[in-house]
Automatic annotation (TrEMBL):
Coiled coil: none annotated. This is Aminotransferase. Residues 37-382 form the Aminotransferase class I/classII large domain. SUPFAM superfamilies: PLP-dependent transferases. GO terms for biological process: amino acid metabolic process. Belongs to the class-I pyridoxal-phosphate-dependent aminotransferase family.
Length: 395
């Protein structure tokens, strides 16, 4: 097993060396070895990929569609994405010049941010938020500006956005909006998005709209800021959540041509092109499977209602989710522990895995995230164990 030459130990990108690993994944790995633990940590749908999408992948292999695809993705998928987005956002994206198929939404986020940011630029992120945004911004040499939304129902207000822009000036190049939101499940209304769009439109900046959970909303309609501000929006989406295709790693970017022209370079440098079988499966899912998320969504909604009721009966305050498959729950005030300490003890003593809220940035401390993208029996067992643990703490 080779040991690094000691002379090389300092030869590393300083921005990469200074960022911490994902708090979500790191904590999940830390508790995974606990015997008998029930985990509600990772946002991993427990459904199978729709059969017709799987068959499309199989057929592509049989037909020897095994060579490099176009770097932006196969045209069939880009056309399907364009059609889908026109239906959902009423914006017509040219499949040739305004759409890139990426290796998951993760690569879409990376390629978008590293394309638009220069050292010294600033990016606004309402928090708590998906923690992946933070290190990518830092690796790009930019500065993260967080806005704590925990006292505003976990929704960014126009007043706080304007204040952040007034304070940071024209160095702000983008704001990242993820909705429905990971970790809270909170969705933005059309009026809330319009108010934010009105402010952004007055500034020389992008909106990076991460709408990966847009097909998973409960009793409300999802609205995209791209429909209000298409000329300034970089839209990110994918099929991991909507069609349970996490392992297929298919996401996409849609934006004006001038941005996509540059972003396609970064995308090509990083991955060349996505996997062919996964692309054909995704094309089939978008062309003939727009109703596939409906039964999944119904199941998630029932789980949401069950877990929300159980948590409330335990005396826990929650951010009631309108989308995605997470619940953000406040640690009882009688427990004087950090979210990491509480989640660690819950894992070791009650054998229930949740994610500490501190992993999601300012406003997350004192909370925990529970994923209900898990089997019903696991959710029930986790709630029973958690209830017993809290009762014992109260004695």
């Amino acid at each position: 097993m080779p040991q690094l030459d000691s002379r090389l130990s300092g030869i590393v990108n300083g921005n990469v060396a200074s960022v911490a690993p994902s708090g979500i994944r790191e904590f999940d790995q830390e508790i995974s070895s606990i015997p008998g633990i029930v985990k509600l940590t990772i946002g991993e749908p427990d459904f199978d990929v729709p059969e017709h999408a799987k068959q499309a992948a199989i057929e592509s292999i049989k037909e020897n569609k095994s060579h490099y695809s176009a770097q932006k993705g196969i045209i069939e998928l880009r056309e399907a994405i364009s059609h889908y987005l026109q239906k959902r956002t009423d914006v017509q994206y040219d499949p040739d010049s305004e759409v890139i198929v990426t290796v998951g939404a993760t690569e879409a986020i990376y390629s978008a941010l590293t394309t638009l940011l220069n050292p010294g630029d600033k990016v606004i992120v309402p928090t708590p938020a998906f923690a992946l945004y933070f290190p990518i911004i830092k690796v790009a040499g930019a500065e993260l500006i967080t806005i704590d939304t925990s006292n505003d129902g976990f929704v960014l207000t126009p007043e706080k956005l304007q204040a952040a822009l007034d304070e940071n000036g024209d160095r702000v190049k983008a704001i990242i909006l993820n909705y429905p939101t990971n970790p809270t499940g909170v969705e933005y209304s059309e009026a809330q998005l319009k108010a934010l769009a009105d402010i952004v439109s007055q500034h020389k900046m992008y909106v990076l709209a991460d709408e990966i959970y847009c097909e998973l909303t409960y009793g409300i309609e999802h609205h995209s800021i791209a429909s209000m501000l298409p000329e300034q929006t970089i839209l990110i989406n994918g099929l991991s959540k909507s069609h349970a295709m996490t392992g297929y790693r298919i996401g996409y970017l849609a934006a004006p041509k001038a941005f996509i022209t540059n972003a396609s370079k970064m995308h090509a440098f990083v991955v060349t092109a996505p996997s062919n079988p996964a692309q054909y499966a995704a094309a089939e899912a978008l062309k003939n499977g727009l109703d596939d998320p409906i039964p999944m969504r119904a199941t998630y909604e029932k789980r949401r209602d069950y877990i929300a009721d159980r948590l409330k009966r335990m005396g826990m305050q929650i951010a009631f989710p309108q989308g995605a498959f997470y619940i953000f729950a406040k640690i009882p005030g009688t427990i004087n522990e950090t979210s990491v300490a509480f989640a660690t003890k819950l894992a070791k003593e009650a054998k229930v895995g949740v994610t500490p809220g501190s992993a999601f940035g300012p406003g997350g401390e004192g909370w925990i995230r529970l994923s209900y993208a898990a089997a019903d029996e696991d959710i029930k067992l986790a709630m029973d164990r958690m209830n017993q643990y809290l009762l014992e703490l109260a004695e």
